[in-house]
Each structure stands twice: as C-alpha cells, then as structure tokens.
TrEMBL record:
Pfam families: LRR_Zer-1. The lineage of its organism: Eukaryota, Metazoa, Spiralia, Gnathifera, Rotifera. This is Zer-1-like leucine-rich repeats region domain-containing protein. Residues 2-77 form the Zer-1-like leucine-rich repeats region domain.
C-alpha cells in the first residue's frame, strides 16, 4: 500500500477538485515526514517534471501536489492523527 502515491495520483488527476473526504482511510499517510523528500518521491513515482513547482504546504504528503486550497477536507477517523496536523490545505 502506498497511500501517499495513491492520494497524489488522485489529486493530479482532478485539477479542479474543491472538496475531498478521506475519512476512514489510510490516505493521510505518515504523521512526520520531510516535505521536500516526499515531493521528490511523488514527482519520481508519478513521472512529474522535477522542475514543476509546487508551493502548497501540507502535513499530508499526498496533498503537496495541490495547486490551490480545497474548500473542504474530511479527515474523520484517519490513520496517524490526520486532523491534528499543522498544515491542512483546506478552508474547512
């Protein structure tokens, strides 16, 4: 299982995504990670140009490829304390 890659693939496949509910899943991934390392890993795994710039801060690695904040991000009962994370790129 590669929750970070699964979530990043979903995000890159839906560029106009405004709401996402990952409640009850393992898609939040690890609680602690290095953002630069994870972003490089995602780029490599998804064949994204290494020069493509992503500026979203996110405490869920798979969300690092977001181009804009979500209107809603559902995190009820996710693994690894999803809702307790510092940077959640969503308005609600």
């Amino acid at each position: 299982s590669r929750p970070t890659i699964t979530l990043a693939k979903l995000i890159t496949s839906l560029p106009k995504l405004t709401s996402l509910d990952i409640s009850g899943t393992n898609l939040a991934g690890s609680f602690s990670f290095d953002q630069d390392e994870e972003l490089n890993y995602i780029k490599k795994e998804l064949s994204i140009d290494e020069n493509e710039n992503f500026t979203m801060q996110a405490s869920i690695a798979g969300l690092l490829v977001l181009k804009h904040k979500l209107d809603f991000l559902g995190l009820f009962d996710v693994d690894e304390r999803g809702s307790a994370r510092r940077w959640l790129p969503a308005k609600k």
